[in-house]
Amino acid sequence: EVQLQESGPGLVKPSQSLSLTCSVTGYSITSNYWGWIRKFPGNKMEWMGYISYSGSTSYNPSLKSRISITRDTSKNQFFLQLNSVTTEDTATYYCARSTPFAYWGQGTLVTVSS
Amino acid sequence: DVVLTQSPATLSVTPGERISLSCRASESVDTYLHWYQQKPNESPRLLIKYASQSISGIPSRFSGSGSGTDFTLSINGVELEDLSIYYCQQGNSLPFTFGSGTKLEIK
User: Fold this and answer.
1) CA-CA distance, A64 to B95, in Å (whole number)?
2) Is residue A15 very low, low, confident or very high in pLDDT (cuts 50, 70, 90)?
3) How far is it between the farthest Cα atoms of chain A?
4) Which of A34, A37, B1, B85 sits at a 20 to 30 Å CA gap from A60?
5) Which residue ranges in chain B fall short of pLDDT 70?
6) Contact B44 A94 (CB under 8 A)
7) Binary contact (A99, B91; C-beta < 8 A)
8) Is the minimum CB–CB distance between A10 and chain B shorter than 8 Å?
9) CA nearest A80: which of A114, A44, A48, A55?
10) Contact list, B93 vs chain A (CB under 8 Å)
């Protein structure tokens, strides 16, 4: 069974970087596409980007140059880094296997606040 | 970006009703349109993929239809456990986008 689990700090200060890890079991990240999605307060959902089976990436242009998705195939993990965060980056962050998104992590709430 | 417009924003229902939720795309997404259900404090769950394909383990009362720009999610006989937010998502072009959701409430 494919399982994903996010981990990382729940509180980040404005202007700092947000870093999350997605640990995958039951399926190799060297197959398929693996993405990050966030849900804002008020229920809006935003696709942030993905990393492919080959390691190539694609990002939502709305995040411009702030985002980076990388991976460690030896640990079957992939990572999200979002730089220069503001309070508007407060959201629940999900990792998921893409697309359609059939498998999701449980989500982790990240609050940006001083 | 492809904008997905879901309607209605909120739908009040009576258990046992047959209901339809709409998702309209700002440009054609062919059949690369997927539906998700999200209950409070849970992750989204894939209900329907590629507009009309069923998903193993999802009750048969859920069905999808449409292509191009107009899509519908139908629930044939709403149950109390279906009270959730429903999202559509397009996977035809990058960036992938989601609709704003339809919230199902009890009348």
Assistant:
1) 12
2) very high
3) 39
4) B85
5) none
6) yes
7) yes
8) no
9) A48
10) none
Reported as a single tens digit per residue, the pLDDT across A28-84 is: 999 999 999 999 998 999 999 999 999 999 999 999 789 999 999 999 999 999 999
Per-residue confidence (pLDDT) for residue B106, from 0 to 100: 84
Q: Omega before A100 cis (within 30°)?
A: yes
Interacting residues of A2 by C-beta distance below 8 A, sequence separation 6+: A24, A25, A26, A27, A97, A102, A103
Cα A78 to Cα A49, A60, A85, B31: the distances in Å are 12, 17, 20, 29
State the amino acid at position A16 in one-letter form. Answer: Q
Instruction: Please count the residues of chain B.
Output: 107
Among B30, B32, B23, B29, residue whose Cα is nearest residue B4: B23
A:60-89 residues touching chain B, CB 8 A cutoff: 60-62
Structure tokens at A18: 């947000």
Among the partner residues A60, A100, A104, nearest to B34 by beta-carbon distance: A100
Closest CA to A111 of A12, A14, A8: A12
